[in-house]
Each structure stands twice: as structure tokens, then as C-alpha cells.
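One thing: mind reviewing this one?
=====
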Amino acid sequence: MTDTTARHASPYGAAPRTSGELDALGELLTRNPARPVHLDGFLLTDQAARVAEAVREMPQWASTPALWNEDLLATRPATPEEFRAAAPRLRAALRQVAQDIPALFDDDSAYAGRFRRDLSDFFVFAGMGPVLVDLLARWVAPGGPLTTNIEFARYDRGDFLGEHSDTDSDTLFVLNLYLDEAYARSDGGILGFRNEQGEEFLMPPRYNSLSVMPIRHGCVHWVTPWLRDGVGRQTVSIAARLVAAPAEAVSHA
């Protein structure tokens, strides 16, 4: 994921939420058992269209197959050949991730100028500026300042994300913004979440909707296989974590 920490202004902004949605978001990190939140119409309509087109026109993507280790407790990157040769039970994930994001902003980049501007504005909104992190702080009351990491992903036919927890990271919660205008539920690619009590929640990647999912022990999530021919399920994944507190000075007296 691309790390974003600087502070600037952005023209992007989230659409207003209902009181019920705000109540659910306010319980995201404290509710037991855990429950994700799925919001429709996250960005203003014109902004969603701009960022969707900018992501769709990103020129470089790479398939990222991953295999489970034999103990099924951790995964490792794999080559496409290794992935195809592996037993189905060891296939952990397969999807495409956008590559070399910083190169898109080079003066000699083939990425069109208007896409550069739209993507730059989105980066500022999603983490480099205070808009989204301040909004998230109001929504979920994380107990400290947040920082975000951003990843752009898409799925080809048969791609999926196997059941996992992400608790080996310092991620507090994850947002997934979906940007596939042509999505239909029969296309698959549905995000599933199972909480500590075994309750399951399914969040289809409807255009301009946002899934907000807590990361905690006892909970797992997955993405069902993408069933449509060709790539789709354009997704911006935003992992939120607390800013690490500075280490206290050590006395050598």
C-alpha cells in the first residue's frame, strides 16, 4: 500500500450520512460482537466518477497470487506457475494490484494530465490531507490520531481473496471503496465478514459504496470469486491505523 501522511487541502469530500449510519460507525471499534458497516453513496456523484475513471486508466497492474504455508497459518507470495500447480486448499488469494503509483506523477508519464489531477486530489483527500482522517476520527472515535495506507486493486475472472484476519498488522479498521459502475450482484466479488460469534455479513461491491470493517482477533473476512469475464471490482482499500506515539526519552542517570 502507498503510505500517505502529509497534510494539504483537497476538493474531495464524503456525502452526508444518516443518524443511524453514524451510530453504527460510532460503535465500530467497541461493539461486541463486531459488526461492519456498509455505506452507499460515499463520495459525491461527480467525484466518484472522476476517481473511478482515473483508477480505470491506471496503466500498470500486476497479478499477486498468494499461497498458504502448509500449516495454513500464514501466506507467502507465489509465482503464477506455483499458484496454478498448488493444491486448491493452499491457494490463498489472487487479484491484481496497481503498480508504481508515484511514477504516474512524473513529467514524462503517459498517464493523462486530467487523471493525474484527479488521482492526486484523491490521495490528498484519503490520507495526505486531513479530510478523511479527521472524518474517520469523528466517525469511529479511535482514541488517537490516524494515518492511512492506500492500495488499488481489481479482480479478473476467478480472482478471489481467501478467508483471513489481518490481525498480524497494526491495522485498526479497513475501508473499501468500490468503483465498478457496471457491477451486478451476479458478478460475485462480495466481501464477507464473520465476527467472534460466527455471524456473517455480506457486502456486495456496489458502485460508490464503502465497506468499513474492524480488524480484531476472532473475526475474519474474504472476497468471493469474481465471476464476470474481464477485469472489474475496482477497489480502493484504505487501511487506518493509529499514529505511533513517540518513544519516551530514556534516562541514563
Summary: The helical segments are 19-26, 45-56, 80-85, 113-128, 130-140. The mean pLDDT is 91. The chain is about 20% helix and 30% strand. Residues 113-128 form the longest helix (16 residues).
